[in-house]
Structure formats: C-alpha cells, structure tokens
Amino acid sequence: MSTRPGNDASTAVRRHSRLLPGPASTLRERVSDWIFPPKGPEISPVVLGQRRVYILPTGAGLMFGVTILLMLIGSINYNLSLGYVLVFLLAGNGMVAMVHTWRNLARTALRPGKADPVFAGQLASFRIYVENTSSLPRTSLAVQLPGTEIEFHDVPRRSSKLIELKVPALSRGMFYPGRLRLSTTYPVGLFYAWALVDLDMHCLVYPKPEAGHCPLPFERMSAGDGPALHTGEEDFAGLRTFRAGDSPRRIAWKAFARNEILLSKQFSGGTATEIWLDFQDLPIMGVEAKLSRLARWVIESEATAIRYGLRLPGIAFNPDSGVPHRERCLQALALFRS
Amino acid sequence: MIARDVSLINLAAILGSLAMVIAPHSLHLPAWIPALAAVVLLARFYFGWRRVKLPNKWLLVTLALASTAAIALSYHTLYGRDVGVAMLTVMMALKVMEMTKPRDTMVVVLLAYFLVVTNFFYSQSILTALYMLLVVWIITATMIGLQHQAGQPSVVPVLRQAAMMILQGIPVMLTLFVLFPRVQGPLWGLPQINYSAKSGLGDSMAPGDLSSLILSDAVAFRVLFDQPPSSPGQFYWRGPVLWNYDGRTWRAINNVTAQRPDIESLGLPLRYTVTMEPHERNWLFAVDMPVSVPEGAYLTTDYQLLSRRVVRDRLRYGMASSLRYRAGIDETLENRRLALRLPAGVSPRTRALAMQWRAESESDRDIVFRALRMFHEQPFIYTLSPPQLDTDPVDQFLFETRSGFCEHYASAFTFLMRTAGIPARVVTGYLGGETNPLDGYVVVRQSDAHAWSEVWLPSEGWIRIDPTAAVSPLRVERGLAEALPAIDRPLLARGAFDWLKRVRYAWDAAANNWNQWVLGYTPDRQIRFLGQMGLSNANWRDMVIVLTVISGAIMLALALVLLLRLQSQRPDTVQRIYLSYCDALAKRGAARNPSEGPRDFAARVSMQFPEHRASAHKISALYVSLRYGPGRNAGKLEAMREAVRKIRLRT
C-alpha cells in the first residue's frame, strides 16, 4: 500500500481535504477507521488479497451457532444419534459457509474510473470497475462509500462490471469519497466478509454558483485590444441582468426558461466583449461567497459568449472563452485557497 | 442488509421447506395441527402472491392462545415432549405470518431445524436420515436464495450451490461424528416419555398370542457369532419362563436372582454378541443355556437373563452359552412344587389321560416319551391358524381340534406333565433366525417366536422338551418357512420371492450397519473404535485436539482449492486476442506501454502508423466494449478476432 509517487501536490490537497467536513460518518465507520486506520490510496487495480478480507459471524450466524448448540444438548440428553448427525452436518455446513463467504470477496480486483466534475451540492458520481478474473461467480457483492446506500451487484465469472456510486458533494475542492467498503454475506448469511479499499478516486467539486441577483460586472468591461464598448444595436454582444427600464423586446426568454433569471440582450458594435472577473474587486464578503459569485459569472459569461478573464490572488487567466477555458477557471475556483 | 420484502420465489421456498419439515410430524400429531399449519402456510403464500397486508398482531396472539388451549385439550397436559413438538409446530407455522423481511426468515429457518431434530424422537431409520438430508438441502438452498440481493435467484444454480456446500461439509461432519467426545445421556431427567407398546414376547402366554406375533417381520435382535457355529442347527433363544397357569393363560412369576446359578457346562461355550432392538421390557435373550451374565444384567433362578433397566434403546451385549449342559440338579423343593401347581377342575379328560400314563409307566422319562409319541403318531397338525379354543383350551386341543401352534403344544404338554407329577414349566423365546450372507449377522425376527417346555427329572435336572418338534420336525430343523403351508407364512418367508429376499438381505445388512455404527456409536463404542484407529485410551481432550486439527485441515484444503480457482488468471478470449494484437504492433516498433489504456494506445498507433488508424480505433473500441460493456456479444468478438487476424497477416 503506497501512494502514487511524484504527486506531492495532490497528496497535500488530499490531506487538507480530509479535514474538511465530509459526509456524516456513522459510528460504525468511525470504529472501523479506528481498528483499520486508513493508509492512503492504493495503486489500481487493487486486488483484494486473501489476508485483507476480514470475516465475522453475523447476528444470524450467532443465532445459528446457539441453535446447533441447543440441538447438541438435546441430542445428548435424549441419546439421539441422528441428532448428532444433523448437528454435525450443520456445523460442517457453517464452516463451509465461512470459507465460501470469504471466497466471494477474495481476489476481487477494483479499478477506479473517472469522476466528472460537479458543483457543490450535486451528486458526485464515482465509477468503479469490479473485476472478477476467477472461474467462480461473485454474487451479491455489497458496495458502499461513506454516506451512501449499499448497492448489491453480481459479477459473473471472468467478467467485469462497471458500478456507479453517487455521493453528495457538499463543498468545493477535490472530493475524496473515502474508503470503499466491499462486503458480502453470501451464500447463507451466516458470515459477513468485508474489505476496506482506498481507491485512488477523486472528484473535482466546483463552488456552488451563487443564486439570485448578481449581475455580471459590466462596469469593469474593457474592450481588450479593440475599441471602447458601444452599446449600439449592431451586434449581439451578450446578456446582462435585466434592469428596470430595459425594453421587454430585449429580454432573453430562452435564457430565462433555462435559468429562471431575467436577462437583457446586449448588442455591441462588432468587437467581442471582454470582461475581467476579479476576486479583489468584489465587495466585502466571505471567500466562499466570492468564489460562488465568480463561479456564477464564469458560467454566465461562457453562456453569453463573452470573453472573460479570471483574476484570483496569485493566479490569473487571460480573457478567453470555450469549454476548456471555463473548466480551467472553475477548477481554479474549486481549488482556491487564500 | 437492506430491509426488502421477501420475494415470491423465496417465500415459496421457505414455505415449502416448512411443509417438508412438518410433514413427518403429521404421523403422530393430532390431525388438526398439520391441518392448521397447511392452512396458515397456504394463506401466507396467498398473501405474498396477492400482496395482501398480513393479519395484525392481535389476531396472531389470539390464534396462538387458542392453539395452546387446543393442544392442552388434545394432550390433557401442557408438559412433556410430544406437547413441546406440537407447540413448536404451531408456533413456527404462525411465525410465518409475521415474516416480511429477509432477516425474519432466519428465525423461521432455525425453528425448522429444531423441528427436524424432534422428528428423531419418533424415528431414526435410514429413511429418516435421507429425508433429513433432503430437508437440509432445501433449507440451505432457501437460505442461499435469500442472499441473492442483486437479482432474483434462479432455482437450479441455487440448488447446485446448496448441494455443493453440503457435500463439502460432509468430511467435517464425519470427523465430528467420530471424534466429538460422546456423553452418555440423559443430562437431566427424561420428562415423561410415553413409550409406546412394542410388539414382542410378553410375560404371559394364551392361545393365539404367539401366532399373532409370528406375523410380524420386525427384527427382535441380531447376533454375530465370534466363530460361525459348526452346525447350521437352530438355536433356542431363551426368554421369559412361565410358571403359573390359570386354565387358559400361562404367566411368569416374580423373579429371584440366582446367587450361584447351578448350570454345569458340558462343552466349549458358544460366544457371540447380541444387538437387541428396544422392547420396553427387561428380558434379554441368550442361547439356551447362558453361562455368562452381561454387565447391567442378572440371571434368575429359572435361568432368565434380565436387564436391570428396561431396554428402551438398542442394546448390545456379549454373551457365552453352553449348548450341552446340566442345570438344576439340586432344584429346591419349593420350586419343584411350584412347577406342579395346577388350577383345580380344569381339563378333566387330560387329567384322566395323564393319570392313566402315570399308572402304566415306570419312570418320569417314560411319560415324557409317551406324550411326545402321542403328538407324533396321532393326527396332530401344526398350523398358524388353528380353530378357536374357548372353554377348556387344553382338553379341546388334545381331544377335539388337534391342530395348533407351538403355544398349544407347549401348553398342553406342560399341563400333561404337571398332572402326571413331573415338574414342568413353559419357556418362551425364539427359535432359529436367518443368517444374512452379506454381513454374517444372524437376524432373529418376531416371526421366529417359539414356546417350548422344560421338565425336571431327578438326577438330570431341567431338560428342554420341544413338543412342536414331535409334530413338525421341520419347524425345529429348518425354520418356520419350511414347516408351515405356504399360505400361512409371513410374506417375506415365502420361498417364491427370491429377489425380494435378496433385497431384504441387502436392506437388512444396511439397517444393521446403521444401527451398529451410527445409532449405536455410544461412548464405549467410540473409545473402542478410536483404540482400533490407533488413538488408544483417548480422553476428551485428545479427541478435541485431533478433531480440531482434522477439521481445520479440511477447511484449509477447501480454502486452498477455492483460492486456486480464484487465481486461475488465464486471460479470457477477449484479452488474449487483444494481447496478440499488441504483440503484432510491438514487432513493428509500437510496443504498448503497460500503463497505456487501449484508447491512448490506439491514438498513438494512429499517429505512428497512419495506415493502421482505422483498424486501431476499431479494435480498441471493440476491446473496450467487449471487456467493459454489458454482457458478451459473439458478433463483436468475431469482428475483433477478424480485425486482429488481418493486422497479424500483414506483418
């Protein structure tokens, strides 16, 4: 178990993000973390060696044990030879069940897939390939990330299965979903086998775009290389938040339908408009609130085809547009630390 | 475990298992209990099928109380083993009405196993064992079905998995069975068990008693001789000795333990082991005359072997008998008087005959021979279905019907002797038996029941006289089957059914092995068997150690076998084809980086060899879809194989 070498920056980020309030951890998860302390992500594919699959009897398993003990006492008392046979048959069955429960997990391989970025408050979707290279099927594997519901999956022999686990992304940054718990009670529910796997999985979480009234900072618009901004009627320049007095004919109804925000169409005299979104220029408000607003502006600017630049303390992106630019800006906002 | 409702197929499996568990109990439970269980199980299935809400708790509580009251009425008690079984059956049936989640089912399954054990109170035969195995199989399959949480279980694979698990558990079962330290029960007092009357010899004999017993093919006991007896002759197995006669019925008297049995052996003793079926009586059987006394038993003054405890379980004991003996030369006067007592006024014609013989004879021996000669020379008939004797059985039999079974002859003969002043008594027991050629055991059945006489002669002591032999020598020499007309014989004793006889031999040998080794594996037998296996003087600690080591080794072996199957990393077809493609490109100078995914590799190949661009993308797309896509697709596999073959050929 070693971290991927030469990735100090991401390890640092990870260490930081572990301190962030993650999904509510249950008592069981806390106890489990105490007994099996996390050691950092593992190189994929992670093959569950036979020694890292843990196993314990379930409640039903203990009940089963007590029952056959009572049956044994009864058989002794009444000299029921066939009672002994049944008790021993069930005991043998129980021991075999233990081995089979263990083998349902042992040597399963897990490989993390890509997780697309999401905005804070949305569900992050982690893809995991569960691979079964063995000649035995794996049945009813329970897969669970902290804070999610258990999902059950069958993985037939010599095949692999793509599982998608959705975890609420609560705050911006690099979201590490925590350790995956792969468990099973198959075949008879008397034993619970599990393994905790720290897959190298992460999901970029953009700040949650601010909702409500926050117009693009057109007062800080600059024309870049081109001439000064005209607000004539020549060309469609973009959208800005509706202000009292704007002509209803200029309202962007399509955008309204999409975002439920009233926007007015702006027209300019032929040159592409540029806009600087600057962290420093925002009024006094919390860092997260500022990032939220900037995220909203980035999305809005991209949607209105304005060339926009982003300036954060220590980092700046020159005005540009297009999806890669948008992603770059949002990533910077997501990972920003003051 | 997520709380889901039990699916219909799982519900059917559970209810089916319970029905299988309850079915054998319907043989001894009051009829309303299995009927109630059937109704409840069917109703539960209907509710599950129609998705009807289950009845509320109070209805169930009411039903449970009503059933308890009904059980109390049926059994007149709420205590005891049978009542326990009845309660368990009813409660288990009612429990399914509040079973909705898979986790509730475990309680029902465990109750079912309990009910399987209670069935052994009533039968522990091979068939019961096979049925138990079937039930365990179905219950295990049900449990497996309940664990299929990602989809519906399909019947055949689940049954196969269950069978495999049971088979894999059998070595552990055998180890535990042989090595688990046996404790002689009971651990606490047996609560009033109603032992049902078993068929077998009684302590009295009236005309017709034996001839009804003779129709039973049930095994009385099995014998294994240390050395096969040199003569194939039939042995007299001595049982209850009857002294008191009331004009119709012969009865035993209270037995007195013989301090020093006055039996003088005149030959080498015959040694053998008897395995007796439980008969709810005290007496044990031994070849006439017993010269040893097994542990826990004693010999009476009339040479009956009695167990100190009622024989309620199959009992095994070693014996020695002497075929040639002299017994009771110094019989007490008191006993001789007892052997002469007769009720006043019965059978006047027989009395007259005996008086006449006494007057005409010189010795007691003469009278004995006259009686035997009478049976032999006059038209007496040996038959299993003699005419009814009502008022005076002995007179009627000797002078009117003249056809009877061994009990008639023994009774009449003894009566004659007593009237003539010769001390005599009736001995009941078994004559003969059948050697099973498969395992050498001699099986003595109820149909071998017999009665004969013993007379006391001065200076000779007690001598066995079998008057039946005078009428039907075949009965004594060759057994019942030969002596009776075909129609009278018990079915299996008829000669025409040779194949049936062979089947019976095989079945009987199996049943005997079962009795000896499975049901009769007592603490003593375990110690002896382990001694033979080289674990002499084993105490329970040794057994537990050996047991743990062996079952641990079995589990380890199983785990290793499974691990080998898990590690069989033979790449699958898709992988193999893709790897051969990578090989082909590596030869051209485009080796795939181990960390390079198929798509990245395809992109690099397209740049390096623009002429392979189309094929590279096609192959990587097919590979990804076959390997990570849903399910197998034969068409795609063939397309990929073909594309790779083209690339390889072009090298």
Structure description:
Chain A has 338 residues and is of the alpha+beta class. Chain A has 3 domains: 8-56 and 105-205, Immunoglobulin-like (Sandwich); 57-104; 218-335, no CATH class. Chain A contains 7 helices and 17 strands. In chain A, helix 6 (287-303) links the parallel strand 15 (274-278) and strand 16. Chain B has 651 residues and is α+β, with helices and mostly antiparallel strands. Among the domains of chain B are: 8-153, no CATH class; 204-342 and 422-493, no CATH class; 573-649, no CATH class. Chain B has 23 helices and 20 strands. The two termini of chain B are 56 Å apart. The interface between A and B is large, with 62 and 66 residues.
Task: Tell me the layout of helices and strands.
The complex is a heterodimer of chains A (338) and B (651).
Chain A: H1 8-19, H2 27-35, E1 46-47, E2 54-57, H3 59-77, H4 81-105, E3 109-112, E4 118-119, E5 123-132, E6 138-144, E7 151-155, E8 159-168, E9 173-175, E10 180-184, E11 191-197, E12 203-206, E13 235-241, H5 253-259, E14 263-268, E15 274-278, H6 287-303, E16 307-312, E17 315-320, H7 323-335
Parallel strand pairs in A: 4-12, 15-16
Antiparallel strand pairs in A: 1-3, 2-11, 3-5, 5-8, 6-7, 6-10, 9-12, 10-11, 13-14, 16-17
Helix pairs in contact in A: 3-4, 6-7
Chain B: H1 8-22, H2 32-50, H3 57-75, H4 81-95, H5 102-118, H6 126-147, H7 155-179, E1 204-205, H8 209-213, E2 219-225, E3 236-242, E4 244-245, E5 250-251, E6 263-265, E7 270-276, E8 283-284, E9 286-287, E10 297-299, E11 305-307, E12 315-321, E13 325-327, H9 333-338, H10 348-360, H11 364-377, E14 381-382, H12 393-401, E15 403-404, H13 406-419, E16 424-431, E17 434-435, E18 442-445, E19 449-457, E20 461-465, H14 467-471, H15 473-478, H16 480-483, H17 498-519, H18 523-532, H19 540-567, H20 573-587, H21 598-608, H22 613-628, H23 634-649
Parallel strand pairs in B: 14-15
Antiparallel strand pairs in B: 1-5, 2-7, 2-18, 3-9, 3-16, 4-5, 6-13, 7-12, 8-11, 10-11, 16-19, 17-18, 19-20
